[in-house]
């Protein structure tokens, strides 16, 4: 019984290892929903799903693709922020279709900006 269970587990693991990583794939999409309509099976060298979100004046452009771990980590190291004008943010993950929510990180940056503006408005109203 234990032997057959171990063999079944090994068969599952070995068959899973032979499958390619699957990532969402899009180029220059303006919405995450539209970006998540296409998937891509990565090559054997590509072991990472990479998402790039470029924000310009509050408008997000999303790019999702397969990449190597080293290429994705190099892109993460080059993340840029130019304040309210925008910037770029790269995220990496290594599970099937793990790049489903890549654009939410860029949108969250607007929340602290809006909260700060609201706080400044309230403070200015109290002091007047």
TrEMBL record:
Pfam families: Toxin_TOLIP (PF00087)
Keyword Mitochondrion: no
Localization per record: Cell membrane
Signal peptide positions (record): 1-20
SUPFAM superfamilies: Snake toxin-like
Domain UPAR/Ly6, residue spans: 21-111
Organism superkingdom: Eukaryota
Keywords, in A-Z order: Cell membrane, Glycoprotein, Membrane, Signal
Gene Ontology annotations for the cellular component aspect, listed alphabetically: plasma membrane; side of membrane
Location, primary (coarse class): membrane
PANTHER family: PROTEIN QUIVER (PTHR16983:SF10), UPAR/LY6 DOMAIN-CONTAINING PROTEIN (PTHR16983)
Stated name of the protein: Prostate stem cell antigen-like
Gene (UniProt): Psca
């Amino acid at each position: 019984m234990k032997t057959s269970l171990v063999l079944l587990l090994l068969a599952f693991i070995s068959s899973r290892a032979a499958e390619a990583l699957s990532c969402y794939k899009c180029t220059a999409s303006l919405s995450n929903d539209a970006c998540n309509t296409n998937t891509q099976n990565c090559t054997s060298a590509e072991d990472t799903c990479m998402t790039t979100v470029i924000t310009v004046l509050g408008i997000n452009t999303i790019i999702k693709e397969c990449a190597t771990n080293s290429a994705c980590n190099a892109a993460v190291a080059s993340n840029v922020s130019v304040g309210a004008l925008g910037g770029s943010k790269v995220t990496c993950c290594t599970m099937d279709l793990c790049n489903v929510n890549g654009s939410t990180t860029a949108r969250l940056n607007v929340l602290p900006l809006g909260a700060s503006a609201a706080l400044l408005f309230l403070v200015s109203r109290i002091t007047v």
